[in-house]
Amino acid sequence: MSAAAINADRTEGAAERHVDSALLVLRGVLGIVFMVHGSQLVFGALGGPGIANFAKMMGPVGYLVAIGQFFGGLGILVGVLTRFSAAAIGVIMLGAIGMVHLKNGFFMNWYSKQAGEGYEYHLLVLAMCVVLLITGPGRYAVQAALPGVLRKL
After folding, report:
1. Is residue 2 pLDDT above 90, yes or no?
2. pLDDT band for position 7 (50/70/90)?
3. Cα separation of 141 and 153, whole Å?
């Protein structure tokens, strides 16, 4: 094997490891954010409303949103059912944009000059979810240790 072929193999392996490391960081941040926010909605943690009060505000869909945020965040964080969890959180973000934030415009309400928060944060989350839908969790995930077809979920 030539030196060029060996270096190409090393570079390719390193690139894959870098992508997997980047996916781990992405999953870590997104998973923690949604687990914390979901724990407010499900358990009433950190001053959150809890699932019963949230469902009173949102109606029956509130149960799905709360559970989707907490368990979707958990799935993304540890790398189990990552694509399903990313899809669930993506749908929740689309719903949040359509039902709440679109009318407030694009920008967050940094200077209290608009009625509420815009949808820029939700677009960032959607982009993160699309990345996970395309790539899956990467090799640094519980899912990567599962056998056969379970690894592809």
Report:
1. no
2. low
3. 12
Return the structure tokens found at 110: 């940094």
Q: Is residue 140 within 8 Å of residue 24, measured between CB atoms?
A: yes
Could you please report the per-residue DSSP string of 3-56? HHHHHHHHHHHHHHHHHHHHHHHHHHHHHHHHHHHHHHHHH-GGG--HHHHHHH
Which residue reads 């490391």 in tokens? 21
Residue tagged 């592809």 (tokens): 152
| Residue span of the structural domain in which 14 resides | 3-152
Is the model's pLDDT at 6 over the cut of 60? no
Domain total in the chain: 1
C-alpha span between 77 and 74 (Å, rounded): 5
The answer to whether 139 and 76 are in contact (CB under 8 A) is: no
How does 35-72 read in b/e, with b if 16+ C-beta sit within 10 Å? Answer: bebbbbbbeeeeebbbbeebbeebeeebbebbebbbbb
**C-alpha gyration radius of the chain:** 19
More confident residue, 64 or 113: 64
Q: Is the pLDDT of residue 109 over 80?
A: yes
Prediction pTM value: 0.86
